[in-house]
Write a structure and sequence with these properties.
194 residues; alpha+beta; globular
Length: 194
């Protein structure tokens, strides 16, 4: 895993950031020894980033009592790179982009807490400040510990990075051999992209 932080002055527009990460991820995935590659704005065990949300068709919570969950912006390949299993539905694909309908995945902890008696697939969640509209839940994935191994996994929402790109992202690669052997190669890949 390695983190790349793009300078705002060089990458002020979302499409520029998406283009950089697309090129870097393509090169990472095609590197010999890399079995899977993906990225997210926060890596597991690197803390949490939470946002509030509302569920489509339900009564809104009282002001200040909106439910919240871990929020992760991820790429296709993220779940495969980290070995996070798909439980039902589908994972993200390259078709989940800026111009396509907004989609999200949730983990099993989210599904148990917020959809205990119904299937979350096909449900809508409005994440954050309510200006983006509803994201359709298209998949449920396994749980991940975001803080430490002793604390139970907390509910998590995942959205495609092309629908909410960050300037700083963690890239992850699952390798066939010693991952530290790729350190020099990874630095060179970043330099080749920019």
């Amino acid at each position: 895993a390695f983190r790349v932080a793009l300078p705002q002055t060089a990458y002020p527009e979302e499409h520029n950031r998406i283009g950089f990460y697309d090129r870097l991820l393509d090169r990472l995935r095609s590197t010999p020894g890399v079995q899977a590659g993906g990225m997210g704005q926060v890596a597991p065990m690197r803390g949490s980033y939470t946002l509030s949300f509302t569920i489509q068709g339900r009564q809104p919570a009282q002001p200040g009592n909106d439910p919240s969950a871990n929020y992760r912006v991820v790429s296709p390949g993220y779940f495969q790179s980290l070995g996070i299993p798909l439980k039902r539905g589908r994972v993200l694909s390259d078709q989940d982009r800026e111009s396509s309908p907004k989609v999200a995945l949730v983990d099993e902890a989210f599904a148990r807490r917020h959809f205990p008696d119904e299937d979350p697939i096909g449900q809508g969640i409005d994440i954050g400040n309510g200006t983006d509209g509803f994201y359709e839940i298209v998949g449920v994935v396994g749980e991940v510990h975001h803080g430490d191994l002793e604390t139970a996994a907390s509910p998590t929402m995942y959205v495609p990075y092309k629908q909410d790109v960050f300037g700083s992202m963690w890239l992850m690669a699952r390798t066939a051999g010693d991952p530290s052997a790729l350190t020099g190669t990874v630095r060179q890949l970043v330099r080749e992209v920019d």
